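FAQ

Q: What does a record look like?
A: Structure on top, sequence underneath. For example:
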């Protein structure tokens, strides 16, 4: 009976959708900032199937209650009015524009991300090509270097930054799977829980964790919205933004999160 319960718990064919928000340059001890990193995550433990779709922060959308603005602003607007309400505003914006219900959220203070990397002992990268100013080859990044890698836009644009962020996440996951890193897991977990906030129930963590472990970093379907899915545009106020081409975006969203 216990085996049946365990199998149902870990393998039930129910997808869990999680909105990951990276909040950058928020005042110390707060989440009052724009969600410059936005990743839609879907996990189906049975297969296992793990999907990540990164959204450019300059995407110009209809923000519920605030009119048109960048997609990274709903969190800031709501958080400024009522601390703690930012994630719900971001979730609502995603649902109304992309048609995907994100039941849960996980937000991380980007500035404090360095603490997690340091607790891990740094991050090892094996680059097949030049990324964020690093040539192809193996590199070991400390906390500050990893944060700079994730933020990098020098000579590139936000599409490169999104790719950098996803590459860094997969490298971190790959490193945490290595036995030699396991002694550092308690300190890394403690640092992670200090810099993040989530409504994901405690009972979901083992279920999603096992699914991600089974999929492995190479089994994650990670994508970004691409340049051909948007049109660069300058607003009347002189802001450089990206107009969404929903005819190109919707099929990708449907493929990853539909059904």
């Amino acid at each position: 009976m216990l085996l049946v319960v365990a199998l149902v718990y870990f393998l039930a064919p129910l997808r869990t959708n999680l909105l990951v928000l990276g909040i950058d340059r928020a005042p110390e001890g707060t989440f009052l900032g724009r969600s410059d990193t936005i990743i839609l995550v879907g996990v189906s433990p049975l297969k296992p199937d793990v999907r990540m779709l990164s959204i450019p922060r300059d995407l110009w959308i209809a923000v519920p209650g605030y009119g048109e603005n960048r997609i990274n602003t709903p969190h800031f607007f709501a958080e400024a009015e009522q601390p703690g309400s930012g994630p719900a505003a971001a979730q609502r914006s995603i649902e109304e524009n992309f048609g995907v219900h994100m039941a849960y959220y996980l937000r991380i203070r980007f500035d404090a991300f360095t603490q997690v990397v340091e607790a891990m002992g740094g991050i090892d990268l094996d680059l097949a090509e030049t990324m964020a100013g690093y040539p192809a080859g193996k590199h070991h990044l400390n906390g500050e270097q990893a944060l700079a890698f994730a933020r990098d836009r020098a000579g590139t644009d936000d599409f490169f930054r999104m790719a950098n962020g996803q590459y860094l996440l997969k490298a971190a996951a790959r490193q945490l799977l290595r036995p030699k890193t396991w002694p550092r897991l308690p300190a890394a977990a403690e640092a992670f829980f200090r810099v993040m906030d989530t409504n994901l129930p405690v009972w979901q963590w083992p279920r999603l964790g096992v699914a991600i472990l089974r999929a492995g970093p190479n089994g994650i379907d990670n994508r970004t919205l691409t340049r051909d899915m948007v049109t660069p545009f300058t607003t009347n106020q002189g802001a450089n933004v990206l107009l969404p081409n929903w005819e190109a975006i919707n099929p990708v969203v449907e493929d990853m999160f539909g059904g």
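Q: Is there anything notable about this one?
A: The CA atoms of residues 139 and 184 lie 20 Å apart.
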